């Protein structure tokens, strides 16, 4: 791509106001690459749907965020997506996709996540060529296409996504798995060529200094176990509650469990469980919170616990670790590969082991604090957004 300034467009089916893990990653990556003199503009091509498939026709077609990121939103048909899957089964106009691409004129198009096949397909087919840099007679051409799949093994009911994503992997320039495990999975499921792959994990924001100072000035609270994730089956908060209830009689100090996240189907069941077992004085359910509130919870956390059914990367683990919270989780997805420092990883859904390790981490202050210090050093050395952004800029340049 030579010396041409970069115009980077990210594609994701959901963006503001929804910000899950993938969307937060786009936001952080956008912020970081905008600091580089190599980058001229950053955009996001997304939809007029909120997660998981609620039409929002009143949302603006175009919006420029305060940091200068340009957001383009696509309406879909039908407004109410078939329940078999989410937004990918909605039809999006190729004409509107072409219009937005012509307006922004990206020379890098970055697919983030592997589920929005209409957006990916139309942008790959319809992306306009860009001119050579001013004063140069050569250069220009089609955009560079980058794909960060955030890979999950597909259940049998979604087998039809495999050939679609395999075709995408053949059509694109660079594939960026988050982990070694994901790279192997992409090779098996989508036949992704290893020569196209560059492994780059997500990053954790640097700790919020004000939140850390506020937490340091608060000494009277019980020990805080924090869990961050949408309240639903996939994140298994009900299972964590069962582990907590079994372990609590062995705790040697007051403890509170804090569940942060928007409802994805389990909020009522969680509330009923808390009421049934008399845990209202010990378990806090915050719902969805602002970035500032989330930073304050991370700063107050003495331990982070999450037992998802699967984590392709587990960005929240590193967000918590950056604040010095050790992690308790189990052996699913990439956890064993990534959580080798500052964390305890139990066998998958082994309740007896999870109860034992939770009890140890609550009761043994020295071990918990040392793990927390190790977690902070590891997260800040290996998984910060400035470091991640530099790696992506090299990919965007074709390095």
Average predicted confidence as pLDDT: 90
Spatial order of the strands forming the largest sheet: 5-6-2-1-9-10-11
Q: What portion of residues belong to β-strands? A: 15-25%
Which percent range fits the helix content?
25-40%
- Unreliable runs, pLDDT <50, ≥5 residues? none
Which class of secondary structure composition applies to the elements? alpha/beta
Please report the total strand number as a whole number: 17
Q: Could you say which overall geometry the principal axes of the C-alpha atoms support?
A: globular
State the end-to-end CA separation.
Answer: 10 Å
Largest sheet: 7 strands, mixed
Radius of gyration (CA) equals 22 Å
Number of helical regions: 14
Structure description:
This protein has a 7-stranded mixed sheet with strand order 5-6-2-1-9-10-11, sandwiched between helices. A 6-stranded parallel sheet has the order 14-13-12-15-16-17, with helices on both faces. It starts with 5 loop residues before the first strand and ends with a helix. By secondary structure, the protein is α/β, with parallel strands linked by helices. The chain is globular, with a radius of gyration of 22 Å. The chain contains 14 helices and 17 strands.
